[in-house]
Amino acid sequence: MRHSSTRISAAAFRRVGSLRGWVEMAAGLALVALLTEWVHWAFSAPSGLRFTAGGIYVAIATVVLWAWPASRQGLGWANRVTLLRAALIAIVAGVVVYPEFIQRHAEGIAALSLLALALDGIDGWVARRTGSSSAFGARFDMELDAFFIVVLCMALIALDKVGAWILLIGLARYAFLVAGVYSPWLNRSLPESYFRKTVCVWQVSTLMVCLLPFVEPSWATAFTLVAAALLVLSFGRDIVWLWRRRPVGDIEL
């Protein structure tokens, strides 16, 4: 009986966690809806933004719920800040398919992106202050960063400021994950790196600056080439570190 009651309690605990997760994701969707309506009212955005921004947020929320740990009851304050950032990024991503709107309101899109970038520093601070750091939160934050970079790259392509090659910056993270499927030694956990974090912020900052109307395509290309070079250096450092520690038989270098 004791084992049976334990299993029932564990199952109930997982259901509570899942329910709270759904509630928090729904709150995020409501925020996206409010932000979208404000953009419509203030800037006469295309009506399709409701579907693009909402659809992108739903996709993000679905991935978060799929990865939701069984032991987690709620997001916690740090992850709620990250969820707020996801809502802002969903709006930015939603307008990417409307190049003319971006051209008219590039400063506003850059400002929204800057707010999302600022929140990227706040969620880590909140996690440390509240003692709520977790592997789930770190992964949520990292994958959202990677998606945000892809969105900004697509925005620059939509504005005809750079060529499609810039997607190499946005897709680098995903190429690394695919490579890990064929070379499992790439899946080893990496140590904390200030350089890696700085390069990530540099990527986002560079892409946001290039959105601004006064940045000519030639300058945007130059800036993003520098960003791409730093990204290659960052990935190169990590790959070398992983290569030197890859397992060879039962011996690890």
UniProtKB/TrEMBL annotation:
<dbReference type="GO" id="GO:0016020">
    <property type="term" value="C:membrane"/>
</dbReference>
<comment type="similarity">
    <text>Belongs to the CDP-alcohol phosphatidyltransferase class-I family.</text>
</comment>
<keyword id="KW-0808">Transferase</keyword>
<keyword id="KW-1133">Transmembrane helix</keyword>
<feature type="transmembrane region" description="Helical">
    <location>
        <begin position="221"/>
        <end position="243"/>
    </location>
</feature>
<feature type="transmembrane region" description="Helical">
    <location>
        <begin position="108"/>
        <end position="128"/>
    </location>
</feature>
<keyword id="KW-0812">Transmembrane</keyword>
<dbReference type="InterPro" id="IPR043130">
    <property type="entry name" value="CDP-OH_PTrfase_TM_dom"/>
</dbReference>
<dbReference type="InterPro" id="IPR048254">
    <property type="entry name" value="CDP_ALCOHOL_P_TRANSF_CS"/>
</dbReference>
<feature type="transmembrane region" description="Helical">
    <location>
        <begin position="82"/>
        <end position="102"/>
    </location>
</feature>
<feature type="transmembrane region" description="Helical">
    <location>
        <begin position="49"/>
        <end position="70"/>
    </location>
</feature>
<dbReference type="GO" id="GO:0008654">
    <property type="term" value="P:phospholipid biosynthetic process"/>
</dbReference>
<dbReference type="InterPro" id="IPR000462">
    <property type="entry name" value="CDP-OH_P_trans"/>
</dbReference>
<feature type="transmembrane region" description="Helical">
    <location>
        <begin position="140"/>
        <end position="159"/>
    </location>
</feature>
<dbReference type="Pfam" id="PF01066">
    <property type="entry name" value="CDP-OH_P_transf"/>
</dbReference>
<feature type="transmembrane region" description="Helical">
    <location>
        <begin position="21"/>
        <end position="43"/>
    </location>
</feature>
<dbReference type="GO" id="GO:0016780">
    <property type="term" value="F:phosphotransferase activity, for other substituted phosphate groups"/>
</dbReference>
<keyword id="KW-0472">Membrane</keyword>
<protein>
    <submittedName>
        <fullName>CDP-alcohol phosphatidyltransferase</fullName>
    </submittedName>
</protein>
